[in-house]
Amino acid sequence: MGELYIPIIVIFIMLFLLLRTRKTVIARKIIKKRKMEDDTKMIELAKRFIGKACLIYSFDSSHQFQGIIKEVSDGAILVENGGTIEAINLDFVIRIREFPKNKKGKKKSLVLD
Question: What is the pLDDT of residues 19-31, one digit of tens each?
Fold first, then answer.
């Protein structure tokens, strides 16, 4: 009975590794495509949000940044959140949006995307 679990565990590990490598290959293809195209499009779009509270989404759905965009340079965005400043690589950014507000003009406490 114990020998039956070993092949099942090996199959699950192989599936996990296959899905993980597939995600990185897709991300690399998108980055390569962006580098070949005119890279200034995303920079110009990001400059529209300077001084605004924004949500910034990256390739990996578990990475979402929020804060006020302070500066946009050639390959990065500087974001201030709670007194700390973060630099986010523009190659990994797929979406930038202004922080949603409710009817009274205040920030929504819960954002579901």
Answer: 777 777 777 777 6
Tokens of 102: 């409710």
Spatial strand order in the sheet of 64-72: 84-89, 76-81, 64-72, 53-58, 93-98
What is the pLDDT confidence band of residue 93, given thresholds at 50, 70 and 90?
confident
- Give the 3-state secondary structure of 91-108: HHEEEEEECCECCCCCEC
In the chain, the amino acid numbered 37 is E
DSSP state of 24: H
Is the separation of the CB atoms in 42 and 90 below 8 Å?
Answer: yes
- Give the ranges where 1-113 is alpha helix by DSSP (H): 2-36, 40-47
